[in-house]
Automatic annotation (TrEMBL):
Pfam families: GalKase_gal_bdg, GHMP_kinases_C, GHMP_kinases_N. It comes from Glutamicibacter bergerei. Keywords: ATP-binding, Carbohydrate metabolism, Galactose metabolism, Kinase, Nucleotide-binding, Transferase. Residues 299-377 form the GHMP kinase C-terminal domain. This is Galactokinase. Belongs to the GHMP kinase family. GalK subfamily. Residues 18-67 form the Galactokinase N-terminal domain. Coiled coil: none annotated.
Amino acid sequence: MSISDSKETTQRMAALHQKFAKIYGHQPEGIWRAPGRVNLIGEHTDYNMGFVLPFAIDKNALVAVRRKTQLDADRQTLDFASTYGSGEHPPITSITFDELVPRAVPGWAAYPAAVLWALNQLEGVELGGIQLLVDSDVPVGSGLSSSHALEVATIVALDDLYELGLSKVQMAQLTQRAENEFVGAPTGIMDQSASLMSHAQHALFLDCHSMETQAVPLPLAQHDAVVLVMDTRVEHSHVDGGYAARRASCEQAAAALEVQSLREVNAVAELEAIEDPVAKRRAMHIVTENRRVLDTVFALREGDLEAVGKLLYQSHESMRDDYEISSEELDVAVEAAMAAGAIGARMTGGGFGGSAIALIKREHIDKVSQAVREAFDQAGYVEPAIFTVIADEGAGKA
Ligand code: GAF
């Protein structure tokens, strides 16, 4: 069973239906669901055309949508509302298609708006006004891809309602365009792909160059193991400079090596030709991380969780030392989890805050959680949010 069938989701859906009717005075035409993700390994490799290995988690965005009709007075406006922290009467953000301009929509509404904008760029597609209500339990700013969940829920809803017949790859590419051009975050294609293409109890092995995927079984139950998320509650954002700077360094390194992307570099020795020491270190992470993804897929297929754990920790070291995207809080979480017996641990997602993950034995959940909480307390950090996640099914009609 996946979370989409769970009692909790059914209850959330019923509440969303009711709230939609209350806010907009109509029933929604349907509710669509898109999960957040954890990236097991393969960080910042997506925009280098490399390999990633994320999985969708049992936390998701739900989007209730209704297309406006001739009978709606303001039938050309796009109305967005969210249940998030809004009490009984959430405010409605209304914009016209004329106002649907890159970087012009503030706050969370930028994400569904970005998707409408991206779809409208397609030849032959002309969307009308809609009413949309969002409910999400993917923690915001925690590196678990809350914004992509929202974009993906919106695109699967609109694809269904307008019978656009988009493939999952097209939807991933369109949401990437939405994020890059409309929201202004220069992100890759991993997060939306994970939300769209994942399968329950599997990780998604994605080649970001060919967009080929393989579902890799996660042998967690066999080993009585779980994935623990340690959200540092230090919010991160990809619109800020750090992410773009890493991307620019990778492009600089690729140019120095005269290759299209760092994906084409197979051996670390080839990096000697890069003169700039920072670009060289960044490229070192990408080249070694691509290799670690392939090795992790192999180890998962062999059922060798110890080997997976080692690769996760090596990935963390590489992000801390070569890519320099970790933070003190993430390092403390990872070290405390490892010292308390984790099989492996690493920061996950874009970095500069957000979450780390630990691969642990189920019997160690309390011990590891407690150790991380104590380490945060001693360091004077805010209390982390710690919870286990399961690998869930990708987006669809709820
Ligand atoms: C963020 C981005 F959105 C992804 O595209 C990816 O680059 C990730 O950071 C790092 O692996 O989540």
